[in-house]
Write a structure and sequence with these properties.
The structure holds 2 protein chains of 2 kinds.
Chain A (H helix, E strand, L loop, with lengths): L2 E8 L4 E7 L1 H6 L5 E5 L8 E9 L4 E7 L3 H8 L5 E2 L1 E6 L10 E7 L3 H14 L2 E8 L8 H7 L2 E6 L6 E2 L3 H9 L6 E5 L2 H13 L4 E4 L15 E4 L2 E4 H4 L2 E3 L5 H8 L3 H13 L9
Parallel strand pairs in A: 8-9, 8-12, 9-10, 10-11, 12-13
Antiparallel strand pairs in A: 1-2, 1-6, 2-5, 3-4, 3-7, 4-5, 13-16, 14-15
Helix pairs in contact in A: 5-6, 6-8
Chain B lengths: L2 H16 L5 H6 L10 H4 L12 H9 L8 H5 L6 H9 L3 H11 L3 H7 L6 H4 L1 H5 L9 H11 L16 E5 L3 H12 L3 E5 L8 H4 L8 H13 L3 E3 L10 H6 L5 E4 L5 E2 L12 E3 H10 L18 E5 L3 H12 L4 E6 L10 H9 L3 E4 L1 E8 L5 E14 L5 E5 L5 E4 L2 E4 L3 E2 L3 H5 L25 E3 L2 H4 L4 H23 L1
Parallel strand pairs in B: 1-2, 1-4, 2-3, 4-16, 6-14, 7-8, 7-14, 8-9
Antiparallel strand pairs in B: 5-15, 10-11, 11-12, 11-13
Helix pairs in contact in B: 1-4, 4-6, 4-11, 6-7, 6-11, 7-11, 8-11, 12-21, 16-17
Classes of the chains: A alpha/beta, B alpha/beta.
């Protein structure tokens, strides 16, 4: 099966989106699920990417990813018409979309990509949707239009104040938790440290919070345990027990350490990849 | 013995054989033929096959050691009852094609089984010669002989004959040994067969688990290529239970029968403190990175990293533990410990693997087991705290139960721990197929005669039925299931 890229767009400096042919995945996919892709069968690694959207009629899925290393950079170089060798899924458990009442969805940076389909489904289910959309600066803020379209209340924050309110997402989150009545449920998706601190806030106010975790994965089907986290003191596999969990029970510190297990060597490989543009300057 | 000396000996023995002068005592006196192997120091630095294979002279001399017992106890020792005595005699006579044909009556994967079967617990255990010497490793080297004829056939392009198309569709879930043979046998009956594989490469544990230096991937690929040539469709990246469920395959996607051969891929962890620290791996993860994803070439042709270890401890005593330890060595570890809570006698690994691991310098620490895994300020493993054990009364497995010796704690400093303590069935199929009867251990319950499950048209075999076991058992069950499916579909027509 060939997974052709149907369309591709750059959303910000390092964030890209692409629509990819994957009819089997599109047909069975539900919000919250992800795929494992690899670019070729010779040397490529397997990486998990959230399914940002799916069109079962067209037989396509859309992915949003951040360029952080060799594989995501190689993916970013592909153009419509190019093929991705392997797309496996849909994996993970779908989000439990209930009628909670008032839901606050917090998305940080690239976390907005997995958050959007969940927020859409929550809204469609009949929940009142408060969205907190944050990024480090204006350039990195993605999906603003989509969140504006679906949210009953929208708060935009940037760390540097270049757009919206100058604040970390935890500030407006706390304010919302202080309201009477407080929200019935929270969802927080973004960098591990952002989810950690969001959970600290919501725990204080006893607002149940679901997070979606982005650990390293290899197979994605529960056979290796590479994605494991410590959850209420017990090991859980993000690929089959998650990717969503009760954020108040997740050991974020350990998860962050495990996420950086190969950081040094991967940084080196990414540098080599970037330099790999002709070493003797013929491409100048 | 040099190859020339071997040729001389063979000539001598063949002459005696001709003249019907080879008596049992003469056969016992024939020197057992050692398998040529890469030097341990050299091979610890490469992933090439360790055992390099018999020459013709090796094979025929070894085959002449067979007593040609009337009752052929070797056959009874084989899980699929291969006519072992007969194929061994054919090899002695130089009739290699004939020998292979005999094997292929019952086994479709001789190049694999000759390499990975635990012969010392099967055919070589019952072999009369081995019994005489009270040592299954001194039995006729049946596995090596099987490998010898199988390897001769590697270049051959023979495709089995396919019966007339029946129009019935069969789904094979999993491309491990069970799935491969079930696909071949159902395709031969003329059915339209699709093989679904969750990974991007086929072969199951033969490819992600067993290392290249024990089982070259090219051998497995050849079996897959044969299936394709037979007209079997292979779909990769298709996870039954997620991409489609069993019921959807049956009810919506037009499949008339299904074989479930998904294996036992859920890794066991000890559930001790520190098991999620950075640098602690399940053997499945470690081996999948190294074997399937070629992490041993990270940075020079592979993008999947693996720990750069100096001191490694592998916990366990089976083939997976040996594979993990020997892979760690080849990845550059200075020191590799193999820690096992019983003694070598109780280790389930093949004798050859234990022997090779020791030769390569892996340090066996028996009657020991980790109590806690200790980490540094970066949550990276830095040591394990172990306990010493002694053997007490036998447990359910019949082996003596290991009992911890109180107060015997001691520390081993290291940077990598690999848990190789067994695998259970992955619950994905059972969780997504509510009508499937599952045992309390998570295995699929089947009728032993046909391998039929509780759902009509759905059959299962291999590790998902038996728990983690061997390639030959999976293959045996796959063949029984295929026969069950073929019967079921033939009856359906009426």
């Amino acid at each position: 099966m060939s997974h052709k890229i149907v369309s591709k767009k750059q959303l910000s400096e390092d964030v890209f989106t692409a629509e990819i042919e994957a009819p089997l995945v599109a047909r069975s996919r539900q919000p919250g699920q992800f795929v494992i892709i690899s670019l070729n069968n010779d040397y490529a690694e397997r990486i998990p990417l959230t399914i940002a959207g799916a069109d079962p009629q067209k037989g396509t899925i859309s992915l949003i990813w951040q360029r952080v290393g060799k594989t995501t950079a190689e993916l970013a170089q592909l153009q419509p018409g190019d093929e991705i060798a392997n797309v496996a899924g849909p994996l993970g458990n779908p989000t439990d979309i209930e009628l909670f009442g008032t839901v606050v969805c917090v998305g940080g940076g690239i976390g907005l990509a997995p958050l959007l389909p969940i927020a859409e489904a929550l809204k469609a289910r009949g929940n009142t949707l408060i969205s907190i959309v944050g990024a480090r600066n204006k350039e990195l803020l993605i999906l603003e239009e989509d969140f504006t379209r679906i949210s009953d209340e929208l708060i935009i924050t940037t760390d540097d104040g270049s757009y919206g309110r100058k604040a970390l997402v935890t500030e407006p989150l706390k304010e919302i938790c202080l309201r009477d009545p407080k929200p019935n449920q929270a969802f927080a998706i973004g960098p591990a440290i952002m989810m950690k601190f969001c959970c600290k806030v919501t725990k204080e106010f006893d607002v149940p919070t679901q997070v979606s975790l982005n650990t390293i994965m290899i197979d994605g089907t529960g056979m290796c345990g590479g994605c494991r986290i410590e959850y209420a003191g017990q090991p859980k596999f993000v690929c089959v027990d998650g990717p969503e969990f009760d954020g108040h029970k997740v050991n974020f510190d350990l998860m962050m350490k495990r996420l950086s297990a190969y950081q040094a060597m991967e940084k080196k490989e990414y540098e080599r990849f970037k330099d790999g543009k002709c070493k003797i300057g013929l491409d100048q | 013995m040099t190859e020339n000396e071997r040729q001389e000996l063979l000539k001598e023995l063949l002459a005696k054989q001709e003249a019907e002068e080879l008596k049992p005592t003469d056969r016992y006196a024939i020197p057992p033929q050692a398998m040529p192997e890469q030097d341990p120091v050299v091979r610890a630095g490469n992933v090439n096959e360790v055992a390099t294979g018999y020459t013709e002279a090796h094979a025929r001399i070894e085959a002449l050691r067979c007593l040609r017992c009337k009752n052929a106890p070797c056959v009874k020792g084989c899980p699929v009852q291969i006519r072992i005595r007969d194929f061994v005699v054919s090899i002695a006579e130089g009739k290699y094609k004939e020998a292979l044909a005999i094997i292929k009556e019952n086994s479709l994967l001789p190049a694999v089984c000759g390499r990975v079967c635990p012969q010392e617990n099967q055919c070589q255990l019952t072999c009369t010669v081995g019994r005489k010497f009270k040592d299954p490793t001194k039995a006729v080297s049946i596995g090596r002989l099987e490998r010898f004829v199988a390897d001769l056939d590697q270049e051959a392009e023979t495709i089995p004959q396919i019966a007339a198309e029946t129009g019935k569709k069969v789904a094979i879930v999993g491309s491990g040994p069970g799935g491969i043979v079930a696909a071949a046998d159902t395709r031969r009956a003329g059915h339209d067969v699709t093989l679904f594989e969750a990974f991007h490469k086929p072969g199951g544990v033969m490819v992600y688990g067993i290392p290249e230096f024990r089982l070259p991937k090219a051998i497995v690929q050849k079996e897959i290529d044969t299936l394709s040539k037979m007209g079997v469709k292979i779909v990769y990246n298709f996870i039954v239970g997620k991409t489609r469920t069993i019921q959807q395959l049956l009810n919506d996607d037009g499949f008339d029968a299904i074989y479930v051969g998904v294996g036992a891929g859920l890794p066991n962890f000890m559930r001790i403190e520190g098991e999620s620290l950075v640098g602690v791996y399940s053997a499945n993860e470690y081996l999948t990175r190294a074997n399937l994803m070629k992490a041993y070439s990270y940075g020079s042709g592979a993008d999947t990293p693996i720990a750069r270890s100096e001191i490694v401890a592998v916990i366990g005593g089976g083939n997976v533990a040996m594979d993990s330890a020997r892979t760690a060595l080849r990845l550059g570890a200075e020191k590799v410990y193999l820690i096992y809570r019983r003694t070598e006698k109780e280790m389930p690994a093949r004798i050859e693997e234990v022997h090779h691991a020791k030769e390569e310098g892996i340090e066996f620490r028996i009657l020991q087991s980790p109590k806690r895994i200790l980490g540094d300020e970066n949550s990276h493993v830095r040591a394990i705290e172990c306990l010493k054990f002694e053997l007490g009364e036998p447990d359910d497995s019949g082996r003596r139960r290991p009992v911890p010796i109180e107060g015997s704690e001691f520390i081993i400093e290291l940077d990598t721990v690999i848990m190789a303590i067994g695998n259970k069935p992955n619950p994905l199929i059972s969780q997504t197929t509510p009508e499937l009867e599952i045992s309390k251990w998570g295995t699929i319950v089947v009728d032993e005669e046909t391998m039929a499950t509780s759902i009509p048209g759905v059959y299962a075999g291999g590790d998902i039925v038996s728990g983690a076991a061997t390639v030959i058992l999976a293959m045996g069950q796959g063949r029984i299931a295929a026969e069950g499916i073929n019967q079921y579909l033939a009856n359906q027509k009426q």
